[in-house]
Amino acid sequence: MQKLEMLYEGKAKRVYKTDVDQEYIVDYKDDATALNGLKKGTITDKGIMNNTISSILFEMLEGKGIKTHFIKKLSDREMLVKKVTIVPLEVLVRNYAAGSLSKRYGIPEGTKMDNTILEFCYKNDELGDPFINEYHIRAMKLAEEKDIRTIENAALRINEILIAFMKEIGIDLVDFKLEFGRTPEGEIILADEISPDTCRLWDAETHEKLDKDRFRRDMGKVEEGYMEVVRRICEK
Ligand code: UDP
User: Fold this and answer.
1) What is the set of domains in the chain, with CATH numbers?
2) CB of residue 199 inside a 6 A radius of ligand 1
3) Does the beta carbon of 176 lie inside 6 Å of ligand 1?
4) Cβ neighbours of residue 49 closer than 8 Å, sequence gap 6 or more
5) Is 83 in the pocket of ligand 1 (CB under 6 A)?
6) What is the pLDDT of residues 99-117, one digit of tens each?
7) Which of 86, 103, 174, 181 is least surrounded by CB atoms within 10 angstroms?
8) Whole-model pTM above 0.90?
């Protein structure tokens, strides 16, 4: 497998072509951003930790019948993935109120939601990833009705699997963000990453935050939070 030219550089990852037509390499960086790119920094070895966590979670999800872009972990910071075109939606799944949901509706952080909340944002940095609903999604031709249903069902199933997985390692899955991609054959599969950058993970006993909120909110011990997630997942 040969790593060829870089196709895309995002805030936390770089994507490279390979000598295999349908396979890309994702390279995880230590760069961290928050507040729509306003806050910038680095989290030491974040790329290594997020690649480790994402690889384990994607493999676990595949084992439970979820189709993902993950093929295999290649190195500390690299994973091999299937080529997809990202559907420009951020799919937010929430079990407890936190972050922007708490702000918007005045619900105290940590309040358990009676039902899982699913939200969509339009993935567009210039616009600041604004909230979007199904009517907008269809009107803007971001996804068809049947694709929205596929994404919705997959997100809810992934939530069930992740809640159970995290519970076993003493973590409450507060909320998380997913992205989906379309294969050249038109199939919608899970893409991007699942890591403390994209999930809120709270210790089930102490409610200590083990995720990117430590960076966003200048809480300190950011690396330690990520490392604790790695440790618990790897010991499982
Ligand atoms: N999230 C993300 N990328 C984004 C926006 C949100 O990974 O661009 C994740 C975030 O880490 C959290 C969940 O989605 O786990 C819900 O985020 P929220 O809407 O509360 O946004 P925030 O408070 O981070 O602005």
Assistant:
1) 3-82 (3.30.200.20), 85-221 (3.30.470.20)
2) yes
3) yes
4) 195, 196, 226, 227, 229, 230
5) no
6) 999 999 999 999 999 999 9
7) 103
8) yes
